[in-house]
Every structure is written in structure tokens, then in C-alpha cells.
Amino acid sequence: MSKTCTFEGCSETTSQVAKQRKPWMCKKHRNKMYKDKYKKKKSDQALNCSGAAQPGSAGNVRLEESTDNILSIVKQRTGTFGDRPARPTLLEQVLNQKRLSLLRSPEVVQFLQKQQQLLNQQVLEQRQQQFPGTSV
């Protein structure tokens, strides 16, 4: 029994059909259909995550679904009280390392110490204004 590809314009045929697919397609067009379906699904997800709702009732459902997806992602990241904290992603790990190395740099340490001294001095001056005549 030979089958012909059902894709428009394709004339590829086969006599060996492993799976009995009703609308049989050659390997090239079957994979193309899978790719297109995957791309469409991903683009729909991207639209949903950006908050853009399609007009009509379908848009509202999709917006609700995206809200549910966001909430489930947040729950996965935070967990419930008592759970082990979620493991940070590789990006978060790298950003945390960069943040720490920046905070530990001599320039930042010196700047923060200077700011702390200025703040302490301001607090001291405010106390002296509030309670004149007493030394702290």
C-alpha cells in the first residue's frame, strides 16, 4: 500500500509506513509541521507573558492562564514557609557573585565607610540641637 504526502505541492510517496497516520506526510513536511506548531506555541506563550491579551473572550482566558503561570512560577521559586529555598538559577548565581565582588571592592568599601561617618556626624549634630548643653 503506497501513500502520498498530504502536504500541498509535495509528491513524495512511500510503501513502508511504520505508523498508520491518517493524513500521511513525508519526513520533511511532518517535521516542518511539528516545528511550526512548536513556534506558534512559544510565540503564544511569549505574548501571554508580556500581558498582551487577544481581543475577545479567548484573550481573557489566555490572560488568566498567563497569570496562573506567573503565580505558579513564583510559588516554585519561593515555596511555602518551611520548605528549602529554591535553588537560584545560574543567572542569579552569577549576578549575586558580581554584586558581592562589587560590594567588596576597595572603592565601594571606602565610599560606604565615608557615608557612615557622615551619617553618624549628622545624627550627633541632631542630638546636640535637640538637647543643647549636654554632651554625648
UniProtKB/TrEMBL annotation:
Q: What Gene Ontology terms describe where this protein resides (cellular component)?
A: nucleus
Annotated GO biological process: regulation of transcription by RNA polymerase II
Pfam families for this protein: RFXA_RFXANK_bdg
Annotated region described as Disordered, given as residue ranges = 37-61
Q: Gene3D superfamilies per the record?
A: Regulatory factor X-associated C-terminal binding domain
Q: Where is the Regulatory factor X-associated protein RFXANK-binding domain?
A: 4-131
So where does this one cross the membrane? none
Q: Which named protein is this?
A: Regulatory factor x-associated protein
Organism of derivation:
Lynx pardinus
Its taxonomic path starts at: Eukaryota, Metazoa, Chordata, Craniata, Vertebrata
